[in-house]
Design brief:
By secondary structure, the chain is α/β, with parallel strands linked by helices. The chain has a single domain, classed as pyruvate-formate lyase- activating enzyme (Alpha-Beta Horseshoe), CATH 3.80.30. 29% of the residues lie in helices and 16% in strands. The two termini are 26 Å apart.
């Protein structure tokens, strides 16, 4: 949990689930896995005692209800709510808290959009819950974008981070937000500015809010987040 977050497009993180497993090339240098294992070494009996194995934290569920000031909250920055090891019953409990904490905006991001789609076909989603999927290259764009367009939510979005290859599929149409970012940390794979511009131009053409998070690299603070002489911080209304 974190009442504040350094992630540029959110205010806070909330992790009723921790741990995950790799499903595509974007997972290769997973920051959450590295952080979980580091925290496990620091506190062997703490919250990350299971390392990066999927773990449910009932004691975290009510945390957003305690935060009285409205926030944008990234749900499960250290996991994936729609991982196969998370039961529908526990997902129901997470969505119930998000519905009750109506003064916040919740941002739920998954690499498993098919399960997200199936879930929203059976259950209603509160208006303060944004649902999105991660993509990193053309193959993942083709696999996941049409699925997320079908998700039943007022705000559906894409996070193209880490962007590790060009995407020619038009990802902006039918969505309410697009995030793009380069990979950061040890072993970070390079990003081509033209890959970013292609997606930015798609968003401009479609009228879809575009958020450029970072260029990334081993030292992401040094590379910054300026694209064509400005920052791009557009958000859904």
């Amino acid at each position: 949990m974190a009442s504040r977050s350094s992630i540029e497009w959110t205010d806070a993180t909330w992790n009723p689930v921790t741990g995950c497993s790799k499903v595509s090339p974007g997972c290769q240098h997973c920051y959450a896995e590295s952080m979980a294992k580091r925290l496990q070494r620091m506190q062997p009996e703490g919250r990350y005692r299971n390392g990066f194995r999927v773990t449910l934290h009932d004691d975290e569920l009510d945390l957003p209800l305690i935060w009285q000031k409205p926030k944008r909250i990234f749900v499960n920055s250290m996991s994936d709510l729609f991982h196969g090891s998370v039961s529908d019953e526990f997902i129901d409990r997470v969505f119930d808290v998000m519905r009750r904490a109506h003064w916040h905006t919740f941002q739920v991001l998954t690499k498993r959009p098919l399960r997200m789609l199936e879930y929203t076909q059976r259950r209603s989603v509160a208006k303060n819950v944004w649902l999105g999927t991660s993509i990193e290259d053309e193959k993942r764009a083709q696999e996941r974008i049409d699925i997320i367009r079908g998700v039943h939510a007022d705000i559906r979005f894409i996070s193209a981070e880490p962007l590790i290859g060009p995407i020619t599929t038009d990802i902006a149409v039918g969505l309410q937000w697009v995030i793009v970012g380069g990979e950061s940390g040890p072993g970070a794979r390079p990003i081509d500015p033209d890959w970013v511009r292609t997606i930015r131009d798609q968003c401009l053409s479609a009228g879809t809010p575009f958020f450029f998070k970072q260029w990334g690299g081993v030292h992401k603070k040094a590379t910054g987040r300026i694209l064509d002489d400005r920052t791009w911080d557009e958000m859904p209304k």
